[in-house]
Write a structure and sequence with these properties.
six-stranded mixed sheet, six-stranded parallel sheet, 12 strands, about 35% helix
């Protein structure tokens, strides 16, 4: 089997689970291609067709729409594709991370009832499948903390574009964030490095309650996880996400191997 990793970053998030993807003697032969290699569209299409499956890592997952003929329901509105397979000479795209986060969410909330606002501390491509899954559970209020060193573009989260018409997308700057009395059901740590000032702004933890859940979506962040846990707030560690992610990808690869005989 031939697997392709297509990334515009280091590929670190995938590398951390790559060794867990061998299944019952099935050892994919991996190819790594980075966007920095400036591949033309025709070259990318050829690569996608030549491999049994392709994992898309990083922001490239937001620009794969033109390459795939058909997309799964979970990636249809969101323009997010992180897994591509050739099927009868046509490229099919899926949002595997939607399934991964759905499983993580179910494991996290257990029997508790959450419907409150959600905050993202920063922004990256994984926001799309996260919002899609949460919207399916009835969450509507999504807030982004604008970071001083990050020019976040919120236009691509426009509900009219994503199809999530009930979703309310907004952002707050650090001043408004500090002054707000709003408590969030879920908090997503999206960045690896927050500035000292941003960490100080967060250190009051006024935006969390004892019933909040903080999700580590980086695995290498300097966010104040230890202090959050000391307050009795639940933290969904990155290791849990990693385990589920590897399991879902193993299942996908196993299905492809079975069909190939």
């Amino acid at each position: 089997m031939k697997g392709l990793l297509l990334t515009n970053g280091s590929g670190d998030s995938f590398t951390s689970i790559k060794d867990e993807l061998s299944i019952g003697g099935i050892e994919p032969e991996w190819t790594l291609k980075k966007e920095s290699e400036t591949l033309a569209k025709a070259e990318i299409t050829k690569l996608l067709q030549e491999h049994d499956f392709t994992i898309i890592d990083g922001e490239l997952s937001l620009s794969m729409g033109p390459f795939v003929k058909k997309r799964s329901v979970s990636s249809h509105f969101l323009d997010y594709v992180d897994f591509v397979t050739p099927v009868k000479n046509e490229l099919w795209g899926q949002s595997v991370f939607s399934e991964v986060f759905l499983e993580l969410l179910r494991n996290s909330i257990e029997n508790q009832d959450f419907k409150g606002p959600v905050i993202f501390l920063g922004d990256n491509e994984k926001v799309f499948p996260i919002i899609q899954v949460l919207a399916g559970f009835g969450f509507e209020d999504f807030v982004f903390l604008s970071l001083p060193d990050q020019a976040t573009q919120f236009a691509h989260y426009n509900p009219a574009r994503t199809g999530l018409l009930q979703a309310k997308i907004s952002k707050v700057d650090s001043t408004t964030f500090i002054q707000s009395q709003k408590e969030y059901s879920f908090c997503f740590v999206m960045e690896e490095k927050y500035s000292t000032q941003t960490l100080e702004d967060m250190s009051y933890f006024h935006f969390l309650s004892s019933r909040s859940i903080v999700y580590d979506m980086s695995g290498r962040s300097n966010f104040l996880f230890k202090e959050v846990k000391a307050l009795g707030v639940t933290v969904a560690d990155y290791s849990r996400l990693q385990t589920i992610w590897a399991a879902v990808l193993r299942q996908r690869i196993q299905e492809i191997a079975s069909k190939a005989g």
